C-alpha cells in the first residue's frame, strides 16, 4: 500500500505509542491547544463544547465518544469541534485511573464492594468486544450466537463502570469549563488587540510621507 510504513512498528513500539505520542505529550498538548484557540466561536460555546467532550471521554462508552460528544455539544449549544477535541480527556494516561475509580465507585453504589485491577477491566472489555464480533458473524454463518458472557460482562463490569463514571465525568466537565473559559476569553482578547494593532499600522501613513 502507498501509505504503509517502510519499517513496521515492533510490538514494544506499538505499546509505547499508546502511552506516549510520537512527538511526546507536550507536543500533543500544544497541538490540542492550538486547535482550540483557532476555533472561531464564542468563548462560552467553545468551553461548553470542551466540557461535553471531557464528560463523554470519561465514560466507558469506548468507540462512541466522538459521536456522543458531538451530539451532547449540539444539545447544549456548545462547539462541536471543541467537544471532539475534549474527548482526549479519555486517553491511555487517564483511562486506568478513571476505570478503577469509576468501577469501584459504581460497585459501591450498587452494593458490590468487590474491586478489579485495571488489567482485568480491560481484559473484560476485550473479551466482550470479541464476543460481539463473533455474534455479528454468526448472523451470516451457521455459527450459534452466545450472549450469556455479554450479559455477565454488562452486569459485573460495564454497568457499575458506567454508573460510577458519571460523578467523576461531571466533576471533570465542570472543571474543564471553568478552567478553559477564562483562557479562551483571554486568547480572543489578545487576538482582537493584535488585529486592531495591525489595522492601526496599516491605516497610519508611513514615516517620511506627506498627506495632500
Notes on the protein architecture:
The protein has one domain. Helix content is 70%, strand content 0%. With 212 residues, the protein is mainly alpha-helical. The longest helix is centred in the C-terminal third of the chain and has 56 residues.
Structure keywords:
8 helices, disordered N terminus, elongated, mainly alpha, 212 residues
Chain-wise SSE layout:
Layout lengths: L10 H9 L5 H13 L5 H15 L7 H11 L4 H7 L8 H15 L8 H23 L7 H56 L9
Helix pairs in contact: 3-4, 3-5, 3-8, 4-5, 6-8, 7-8
Short description:
The chain is an all-alpha fold and 212 residues long. The chain has one domain (24-194).
Q: Ends: how far apart?
A: 66 Å
The helicity comes to over 70%
Q: Quick one: how many beta strands? A: 0
Please state the overall shape, judged from the principal axes of the Cα atoms.
Answer: elongated
Sketch the topology as an H/E string, one letter per element: HHHHHHHH
Instruction: Determine the number of helices (DSSP H or I, runs of at least 4 residues).
Output: 8
Strand content: under 5%
Largest sheet properties: none
Provide the gyration radius in Å: 24 Å
Q: What's the pLDDT, averaged over the residues?
A: 80
The class by helix and strand makeup works out as mainly alpha
Low-confidence stretches: 1-5, 13-20
How many structural units, i.e. domains?
1
Amino acid at each position: 500500500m502507498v501509505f504503509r510504513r517502510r519499517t513496521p512498528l515492533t510490538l514494544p513500539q506499538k505499546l509505547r505509542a499508546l502511552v506516549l505520542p510520537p512527538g511526546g505529550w507536550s507536543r500533543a498538548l500544544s497541538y490540542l491547544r492550538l486547535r482550540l484557540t483557532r476555533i472561531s466561536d464564542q468563548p462560552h460555546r467553545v468551553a461548553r463544547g470542551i466540557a461535553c467532550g471531557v464528560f463523554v471521554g470519561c465514560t466507558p462508552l469506548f468507540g462512541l465518544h466522538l459521536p456522543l460528544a458531538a451530539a451532547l455539544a449540539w444539545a447544549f449549544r456548545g462547539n462541536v469541534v471543541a467537544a471532539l477535541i475534549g474527548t482526549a480527556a479519555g486517553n491511555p494516561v487517564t483511562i486506568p485511573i478513571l476505570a478503577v475509580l469509576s468501577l469501584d465507585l459504581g460497585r459501591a453504589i450498587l452494593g458490590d464492594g468487590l474491586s478489579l485491577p485495571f488489567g482485568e477491566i480491560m481484559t473484560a472489555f476485550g473479551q466482550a468486544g470479541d464476543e460481539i464480533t463473533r455474534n455479528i458473524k454468526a448472523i451470516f454463518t451457521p455459527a450459534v450466537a452466545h450472549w450469556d458472557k455479554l450479559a455477565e460482562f454488562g452486569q459485573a463490569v460495564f454497568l457499575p463502570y458506567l454508573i460510577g463514571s458519571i460523578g467523576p465525568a461531571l466533576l471533570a466537565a465542570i472543571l474543564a469549563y471553568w478552567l478553559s473559559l477564562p483562557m479562551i476569553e483571554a486568547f480572543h482578547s489578545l487576538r482582537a488587540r493584535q488585529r486592531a494593532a495591525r489595522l492601526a499600522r496599516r491605516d497610519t501613513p508611513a514615516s517620511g510621507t506627506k498627506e495632500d
